[in-house]
Amino acid sequence: MSLERVNPAELSPPTGFSHAVTATGSRLVFLAGQTALDADGKPVPGPLPEQFERALGNLLTALRAAGGTPADLARLTVYATDVADYRAHARELGRIWRESAGRDYPAMAVIGAVRLWDEECLVELEGVAVLE
Asked: What are the tens digits of pLDDT across the range 38-83?
């Protein structure tokens, strides 16, 4: 499996994401949206950084169970109920990402959502990984 992160000099320097990711491999893993739910399916209360950390942990748990690692993530979509709050916490969220997933950044988008399935949840992460 091979992922190549592509960041053209003609585009603004990416911070915490890659502009494009090319992937070669034999197995795709589509990761369902993960929020800050505990093992019993109950939302874990807390501010955005705590919920982001839990949602990312849930996503990475699903990825590992499918045989992947954070470096295998090719694409990640973040749904946030408050994009301004997400931007305000960008440094802290970046730190959480690096501690949990490293510095191999997937192609990524942050999308504002009116609300998520569980009203208490502030953020949801879904992704695509490419495995060998």
From this structure: 999 999 999 999 999 999 999 999 999 999 999 999 999 999 999 9
Count CB atoms within 10 A of the CB of residue 52: 26
Contact by Cβ (8 Å): 79, 111: yes
The answer to whether 44 and 38 have CB atoms below 8 angstroms apart is yes
H or E element, residue 90: helix 90-101
Cα gap 128→119, rounded to integer Å: 25
Q: Count Cα neighbours of 77 within 13 Å in the Cβ-side half-sphere.
A: 11
The pair of three-digit structure tokens given for residue 45, joined into one six-digit string: 């209360």
Q: Does residue 29 contact residue 131 with C-beta atoms inside 8 Å?
A: yes
